[in-house]
Write a structure and sequence with these properties.
12 helices, elongated, alpha/beta, 2 domains, Rossmann fold, single chain, seven-stranded mixed beta sheet, 6-phosphogluconate dehydrogenase C-terminal fold
């Protein structure tokens, strides 16, 4: 599907189009020849109460994108949806899908025939990295031809799409995002508590330490609101953080057991941790070796 051609020029409205995610999609549709109209709070726009021009644009749009914070998207969906043509596609880009999915279900319960397809997308990467080869989670809240066209667009742009449900999306993202970020941030906080000097650690840094430090630098140099949203908004994130705290306690217990002279407890700990990789362990080990080889070159 990557080689497919773009459909006829479409009209696209992107709320939040000045942000990184909104701008990424706006640029892609512009490159396809679409007429893209950007709304953004930075320009004094509010998708929850659109002005006359914005409302007129949405009434004629083929695609309307909500690249806005969750509280804005939840408040806007009931306002925006009645404005759209029955064939128009509504897209949200939230990092949490379950609450928006519930909001759509409530609207459908009031009028099941109101509005057209609604799709949620979540780029599982920083927009600065670009779409080609990157994973994009897709949740079809309400199906239709417009939803199929969006999948075609993503494939043509080189993205790897993963169709899933809203609940599964949030559960998996608690692991791949919330748990990962919490682990890295905890590493940084622990370093600060230890009081070690960054210049000193750099002289003796192992490849794993260097990798963790690089990830810490990327997260702490990012937008706080984005990372806070991953931790605060996902209903499954607290369970992920609790699991992390329990895991650290298990590591300590395995190391502090004076009766475990043979190290069987720690060996069992390694086996338990490695089991989470399933059949992909060898592949991840090879990837790690390539990363570390690259650091030495």
């Amino acid at each position: 599907m990557t080689g497919s051609t773009a459909p006829e020029a479409r009209s696209v409205v992107v709320a939040g189009g000045a942000g990184a995610v909104g701008a990424m999609f706006a640029d892609r549709w512009r490159a396809d020849g679409a007429d893209v109209y950007v709304l953004d709070a930075a320009f004094g726009d509010d998708i929850r109460s659109p002005g006359p021009e914005a409302e007129a644009r949405m009434r004629e749009a083929d695609i309307v994108v909500l690249a806005v914070p969750e509280y804005v998207a939840l408040a806007a969906v009931g306002t925006v949806r009645p404005l759209l043509r029955s064939t128009a596609l509504l897209v949200e880009t939230l990092s949490v899908k379950s609450r928006f999915s519930a909001a759509v279900a409530r609207l459908d319960g009031v009028d099941v025939d109101a509005g057209g397809p609604i799709v949620g997308v979540n780029p599982m990467f920083a927009p600065s990295l670009g779409l080609p080869g990157r994973a994009v989670a897709v949740v079809v809240h309400r199906g239709g031809p417009g939803a199929d066209l969006l999948l075609d667009d993503l494939a043509r742009w080189g993205a790897r799409t993963e169709l899933t449900t809203a609940d599964r999306h949030d559960r998996l993202c608690a692991a791949v995002q919330a748990l990962t970020h919490a682990t890295i941030l905890s590493f940084g906080c622990a370093l600060a508590d230890l009081g070690v000097d960054a210049d000193e650690t750099a002289t003796l840094a192992t490849p794993p330490f260097t990798t963790m430090s690089a990830m810490l630098a990327r997260i702490t140099g990012g937008t706080p609101e984005v990372y806070r949203d991953v931790q605060r908004s996902n209903p499954c994130a607290p369970a992920a953080r609790d699991a992390l705290a329990r895991a650290v306690s298990r590591v300590s217990a395995a190391c502090d057991d004076d009766d475990d002279t043979a190290g069987t407890e720690f060996t069992a700990l390694l086996a338990r941790a490695g089991a989470s990789l399933g059949d992909r362990g060898d592949g991840y080990a090879e990837m790690c070796a390539r990363l570390f080889d690259g650091m030495a070159s």
